[in-house]
Amino acid sequence: MNWAVILYAWACERLYKEFAWSYDGVSWLVSLGRWASWRRMALTHLPTPDPTTRLSPRILELGFGTGELLIEMAQRQLIVCGLELAAPMQRVTQRKLARRQLVIPCVRALAQAMPFSGDSFDAIVATFPAPYILQPATLQECARLLRTPTQYQPGGRLVIVGLWVDWESPLLRRLAGVFYGTPNLSFIQQVETRLEAAGFAVTIQEQRDRHVCVGIVVGEKIAHRLSTG
Length: 229
Description:
CATH architecture: 3-Layer(aba) Sandwich
Helix content: 25-40%
Strand content: 15-25%
Low-confidence stretches: 225-229
CATH class: Alpha Beta
Strand order of the largest sheet: 3-2-1-4-5-7-6
Number of helices: 9
Mean pLDDT: 86
Radius of gyration: 17 Å
Number of strands: 7
Largest sheet: 7 strands, mixed
CATH topology: Rossmann fold
Number of domains: 1
Shape: globular
Order of helices and strands: HHHEHEHEEHEHHEEH
CATH superfamily: Vaccinia Virus protein VP39
């Protein structure tokens, strides 16, 4: 592990703790003002309302940070819930919810042991997550919480945005390597293998935004996972 990786990990921890108040500004800065656009990419991969019941899908956001996507989903009339371990991020989000007069369930818990019953959600979304998102225990929990497919509808969907950001500019690509980095083939294969082992059919793609491509991983829960233990 080189000094840049160590420094980045230390800085991220500070942003989630004593400097949580600065997270939105720092995110805007490191993305050259495009953070909100990148984050919204998750919305296009969420399931739509059931055509027969017209019920909105139930969405869980993992690591909701300062709550921006959580709020946007609620304003779009989605049924949302958030999970975030960092207490400072919870406080920032609660202040935003109070200003907007919104009530959204926000749970403080580990992603490896989430306090929800099985088949609780139609989709789980995570944007620019920390490495915990690819831990087997996290992915197994996501599979447990997502709806099981039936003959009438597909399984629940796990949407992960921002595991990597690839800049067109060679200079920015080198600089971005400190923060995200362009993925190599072994990393992509690792992502696919881990999601499949947890019980997902996996689609990996990139979505362009001006001069960058943002990595998007979508896992659809398949039928046999929970029945096989």
